[in-house]
Design a protein that fits this description.
It is a single chain. By secondary structure, the chain is α/β, with parallel strands linked by helices. About 40% of the residues lie in helices and about 10% in strands. It has helices at about 5-10, 40-50, 65-70, 90-100, 125-130, 210-220, 270-275, 280-295, 300-315, 325-340, 345-355, 360-365, 365-385, 395-444; strands at about 20-25, 55-60, 75-80, 105-110, 115, 120-125, 140, 170, 175, 190, 200, 230-235, 240-250, 260. Helix 9 packs across helix 10 (about 325-340) and helix 10 crosses helix 13. The N and C termini lie far apart (about 70 Å).
């Protein structure tokens, strides 16, 4: 997604945007019945409070996942407990899910560890999970939590021996490059559990789930289908080893829906949240919301980002953008965006404003460079259009390379000026040193 894609959403500014909708798919009454053993009421209420419509879908009790039903939702979150070897999704449901995901539908999928001492081990969640298109590859459904030759309860994320409800959540080990879900300025937590499942990040096979078609499309466009990647790890306190806790697959690169896979649904259930206090609880609940925003289809995210950008670019009358330093303009823009957008959407819009330029680590992480690039972009957008509503994606696509080139050149000129100033300061210091040496020589 680049800035011209986002600006395309400005054409929708005058229309009401319906609430994004999540279908929470569960396969056991342990998640939803009165007095449920695990419960998902806190997850539901958190997402609703953040502006999402959330409905519960119960395997075996709700209607099948047909195209008509799925058309009402932007995301499906699978919290899966079943481990039967038969049943699960029907062929029609699988095809309906595939079609819906191809149109941008986002999926979060999670089960739990495998049970049983001897192969074949039954993975918790396998009944439904093993048939969800594409997402099924991001989890192991038939093996224990760590290694196939070990007991299935060996992956312990509880620091002290005891129950999951010890009140101490696990801190995530965020992987580099840092995913947009994670704000670099804060730590992230999820409830712990005594045995986690297995998250995978394989190269998805190209002969199933439509990937062969995407491969051809990618070859034509120069963009190959992405590979899943692990974005967070946990710590196994029984051994000190780390394990893969969360993986993502950004299908948006080939025009389809995104996927998140989690090692355990215990990270989302009431029983595991019950004893966690602040500040951990609010951070965990906020992380659920960030996941929901990231999974939202590109078309709807563009509208939300465009609205935020439009508000930011309606600068106060006191701001003279034509004569304001681009660095100051960038800082003002970033400050206003932080107040209007969730963490993950803020990161996405900032990345789009900064431009699609591969940078070495230090420069990529430089606040000065970031504010310079964003300020230059905003100034150029306003100069191009005159008004926010007049911004045109087509015009931007034509002008974007020139805008980015000028931004980099102006930053280079600024660095050169700093270098010249430092050279001048160095010469002045050298002159002072020579003078002091002469004075000291005179006293001797």
């Amino acid at each position: 997604m680049d800035i011209s894609d986002i600006v395309g959403g400005i054409t929708e500014l005058g229309e009401d945007v319906p609430k994004p909708a999540i279908l929470l798919y569960v396969d056991s009454e342990d998640f939803y019945a009165e007095g449920a053993r695990y419960g998902v009421t806190r997850l539901e209420s958190t997402l609703r409070s953040a502006g999402f419509r959330v409905d519960l879908h119960i395997w075996g009790e709700s209607a099948a996942l047909g195209e008509t039903l799925l058309a009402d939702y932007d995301e499906v979150w699978f919290l899966l407990l079943g481990k039967e070897k038969v049943g699960g999704l029907g062929d029609g449901e699988v095809e309906a899910l595939r079609t819906w995901m191809d149109r941008g539908g986002g999926v979060l999928i999670t089960g739990d560890h495998a049970v049983g001492q001897h192969p074949p081990l039954e993975g918790i969640g396998r009944t439904v999970g093993r048939r969800v298109p594409r997402a099924r590859h991001l989890r192991a459904w038939d093996r224990p939590g760590k290694k196939e030759d070990q007991e299935p309860h060996d992956t312990r994320t509880i620091f002290d021996a005891g129950a999951d409800v010890d009140g101490v959540p696990q801190r995530l080990l965020v992987q580099q490059p840092r995913h947009h879900l994670f704000n670099p300025a804060r730590p992230y937590y999820l409830p712990d559990h005594s045995h986690e499942g297995v998250v995978l990040a394989p190269a998805l096979p190209t002969d199933e789930d439509g990937l062969a078609q995407w491969r051809a499309k990618g070859d034509d466009s120069g963009t190959a289908p992405p590979r899943p990647r692990v974005i967070a790890k946990g710590v196994d306190w029984a051994s000190g080893d780390t394990f893969d806790l969360m993986a993502e697959w950004d299908g948006e690169a080939v025009g389809v829906g995104r996927i998140l896979a989690d090692s355990s649904w215990h990270h989302y259930t009431d029983s595991n949240l019950a004893s966690i206090g602040e500040p951990f609880l609010s951070r965990i609940l906020d992380f659920y919301v960030q996941q929901a925003w990231w999974l939202l289809a590109a078309e709807k995210r563009c509208v939300l980002l465009a609205r935020a950008l439009a508000e930011v670019m309606r600068l106060p009358d006191a701001v003279d953008y034509e004569h304001t330093d681009v660095r100051a303009l960038g800082e003002l823009t970033l400050d206003r965006l932080r107040r209007k957008l969730p963490t993950v959407l803020h990161a996405e819009l900032v990345a789009a404003l900064r431009g699609p330029i591969p940078l070495p680590g230090r420069l990529a992480a430089s606040p000065a460079f970031e504010t310079h690039m964003i300020g230059t972009q905003v100034k150029a957008l306003l100069e191009t259009s005159g008004t926010v509503e007049a911004l045109s994606p087509e015009v931007l696509r034509d002008k974007a390379p020139g805008i980015l080139t000028e931004a980099i050149k102006s930053y280079e000129r600024e660095i050169e000026a700093y270098r010249d100033a430092l050279e001048g300061a160095r010469e002045t210091i050298s002159s002072y040193r020579s003078g002091l040496d002469a004075v000291l020589d005179g006293y001797e």
